[in-house]
Amino acid sequence: MNTVPIARPCPACRLATVVVDGDWIRCQSEGCKFAHQFTCPICEGSLANAKTSEDRYDQYLHCSGCANLIGLKKIKYLIENGMQVDDQNRCTLCNGPTVHRATMNLGHRCFFFPKCSGQTDLFGATRESFIFLDFETTGLEAGRDYIIEVGAVKIDEEGYEHVFQELIKPPTSISAKITQITGITNAMVENASDLKPVLERLVDFMGNAKLVIHNADFDMIWLLTALIRHQLTLPTSTVTCTLRWARAMAEPGASLGALTKKYGISHGNAHRALADAAATKEIFFIFDRAAKVPRPNIEVTEFRRQAEKIVERYTGFVQA
């Protein structure tokens, strides 16, 4: 089997990265002897004599203990993202173990994603990648207020989840009201990055993924206004709005809070960008699986004209 590189430094020498090599994690440095043999993340059984196989997407170890296929990309994903396997919180769809990030406010997810968790469409004839995006701001006017946080969750073509979260330093103080709503304080953004480099990293993170936002009428104006002011290009031409989708499905409450409560979605740290983006992701797959109403895909041009008018009206306003 070919080795699979992990984007983490060696815990021993810190000079090189490590690779997954069969059921071993090894340092790539010739002078370092770090090697760790891992067990099955599901049953903790030995994988030393596991049968191996591969397809065009991954390489697998066949656990003789629980009879599950353990993908090396899954091992890579768990390590790079600091994921923990939880055998107590079982998946409600397949009763499999779940994984979660103990250091982030993201709910448990089935270990067997994307084949479980409502993402089976990613294994169809056309594979899709999605980016779920949310902003936190100092006010409601994209022309005169400031972005203070960006949060995004990306599901790539193979169903793996990646996160993007950055605080942004505004040129003015954050009001007590905004701190009360978001939990973001002036101390938290004191040493944060300026907006432009965050936008550049966000555009790179998005790639060609399909954009999904809850209340696109708000966040799309902020996104496009900021991109236009910094002469950056949005890498997608459409956006799916889960708020419009909820209304089209005649949901009694279409707000993110109402929907997460109705569908039992973990939504701690509500009004923080990453938490709201993660909740939007869950709502999207629930609606998509229900297939009651087609996805409300909206042309970006619908929002761009409004953003251009804001930029023209407030010509002297630029958040660095």
Task: Explain the overall architecture.
This protein has 320 residues and is of the alpha+beta class. It folds into three domains: 4-80; 84-111, no CATH class; 113-313, Ribonuclease H-like superfamily/Ribonuclease H (Nucleotidyltransferase, domain 5). It has nine helices and 16 strands. The protein has helices at 72-80, 176-182, 186-189, 195-206, 216-229, 242-248, 256-262, 273-290, 301-313, and strands spanning 4-9, 17-21, 24-27, 35-37, 51-54, 59-62, 69-71, 83-86, 98-101, 109-110, 130-137, 147-155, 161-167, 210-213, 238-241, 297-299. The strands form four sheets. Strands 13-12-11-14-15-16 form a six-stranded mixed sheet, with helices on both faces. A four-stranded antiparallel sheet has the order 1-2-3-4, with helices on one face. Helix 5 crosses helix 9. The termini are far apart. The model is unreliable at 118-125 (pLDDT under 50).
- Average the pLDDT over all residues and give the rounded result: 88
CATH level-3 fold name of the largest domain = Nucleotidyltransferase, domain 5
Task: Report the CATH superfamily of the largest domain.
Answer: Ribonuclease H-like superfamily/Ribonuclease H
Q: How far apart lie the N and C ends?
A: 48 Å
Portion in strands:
15-25%
Low-confidence parts lasting 5 or more residues at pLDDT below 50? 118-125
* Text of the CATH class of the largest domain: Alpha Beta
How much helix, percentage-wise, in residues?
25-40%
Number of strands: 16
Characterize the largest beta sheet: strand count, sense, and whether it forms a barrel. 6 strands, mixed
Categorize the overall geometry.
Answer: globular
CATH architecture of the largest domain: 2-Layer Sandwich
Counting structural domains, the number is 3
SSE topology string:
EEEEEEEHEEEEEEHHHEHEHHHEH
Annotation field: number of helices? 9
